[in-house]
Amino acid sequence: MINYFYVADTVNNRIVKRSLSDLSYVAKVGTVGTGNDQFNNPMGVTRDNTYLYVVDSYNHRIVKRMLSDMSYVAKIGTQGAGNNNFYQPFGATNDGTYLYVSDTYNNRIVKRLLSDLSYVAKIGTQGSGNDNFYLPRGITNDGTYLYVFDTFNNRVVKRLLSDLSYVSQIGSFGAGNDQFNYSYGITNDNTYVYVVDTYNHRIVKRLLSNLSYVSKIGTQGSGNNNFENPFGATSDGTWLYVADSGNNRIVKRLLSDLSYVAKVGTVGTGNDQFNSCFGVAIGAEAKAALGSSAISGRGSIVIVEAKGALGSPAISGGGSVVAVSRIARIITLRSYWKRFMSRNPNYKGRLMEIYEGQVGMAEGEFTRTWVGKLTNVTTQNGEFTFESTDLLKDL
């Protein structure tokens, strides 16, 4: 019997344990840093019957902890591209024997043993081919197949769990039934796969068997049938739980017809509040650990929070638009960066990408022209200055 759920409180750099029955606080662990009881922007969580596995993204590692008291057990990973390295990993799921990690900035999926976190296999390089990915994030499995949302290729990729070999894919950039707009989350109920189509502000239901379209729900807004940049979802076989990130809430819906049931959350730091909740997972998976955008779990709810990664590009100059993504996806309000810096003093070192294009172009038509690490953000007279180090020179 499952009594607790676990929250990856990303910018607070901690894991919080709460009661499933009444959602009340139980315990927490973590501060910012690199020690065994520290994290740096944890984004993904999955669990088996004994252990919790945390995707400690900006420490580029996976941390294994006891479910019972969240005490440290083991960890694996440093920054890099080797078999025991990660580069800002994002999501995780497990099938009871193996752990599958979306190693986002290495553009690959990594398979490891749950027992000792040892390396088993990997697949992927940057690109758009069948064995390529471009910043994959969401990941889930049904016990036979792995489903990856290949975010910057705007597609769902289906692969065999056994050898990670390619099976099929669906998707391109857009708002049609077979299109997506930089989706982050994905989950399944062993019959259907549910895509959290982040920047289309909707949930799309598809058949697991052939990935064909079934239905969708959502437009941009704050009503019961609206979403604002949702990032994650999971199911327990009856209900779908959506991390409606921009609305700072968790929304519960029926799997059968995606109809609204209930919601909880407002913006803030209180017990019933969220600040850009990144994902949610609850698990009653008979065959496998079902996943979400950054998370998966068995018999648990997991909420992942991340700040500074929402919205649409809005830095303009002349006749072009420069879109700063990853940590600066929303800067349309001048007050945003003031809040960002006050709530997130550890922004330094985060990856920043610059995309350029003409006003009126779709985001997917922008061209990435530069990648760097954010070193400083300053404000004067309502104007913000971003200082960043060229990543290639830094490496």
Question: What tags apply to this protein structure?
Answer:
40 strands, 395 residues, mainly beta, globular, single chain, five-stranded mixed beta sheet, five-stranded antiparallel beta sheet
Number of strands: 40
Task: Return Rg in Å.
Answer: 19 Å
Unreliable segments (pLDDT under 50, ≥5 consecutive)? Answer: 283-336
- Strand neighbour order, sheet with most strands: 3-2-1-35-34
Structure, described:
It is a single chain. By secondary structure, the chain is mainly beta. Residues 283-336 have low confidence and may be disordered.
Short description:
With 395 residues, the protein is mainly beta.
Element layout with pairings:
Layout: E1 4-9, E2 14-19, E3 25-29, E4 31-32, E5 38-39, E6 42-47, E7 51-56, E8 61-66, E9 72-76, E10 78-79, E11 85-86, E12 91-94, E13 98-103, E14 108-113, E15 119-123, E16 125-126, E17 132-133, E18 136-141, E19 145-150, E20 155-160, E21 166-170, E22 185-188, E23 192-197, E24 202-207, E25 213-217, E26 219-220, E27 226-227, E28 232-235, E29 239-244, E30 249-254, E31 260-264, E32 266-267, E33 273-274, E34 277-281, E35 302-305, E36 315-317, E37 320-325, H1 334-343, E38 351-358, E39 367-380, E40 383-390, H2 391-394
Parallel strand pairs: 1-35, 4-5, 10-11, 16-17, 26-27, 32-33
Antiparallel strand pairs: 1-2, 2-3, 6-7, 7-8, 8-9, 12-13, 13-14, 14-15, 18-19, 19-20, 20-21, 22-23, 23-24, 24-25, 28-29, 29-30, 30-31, 34-35, 36-37, 37-38, 38-39, 39-40
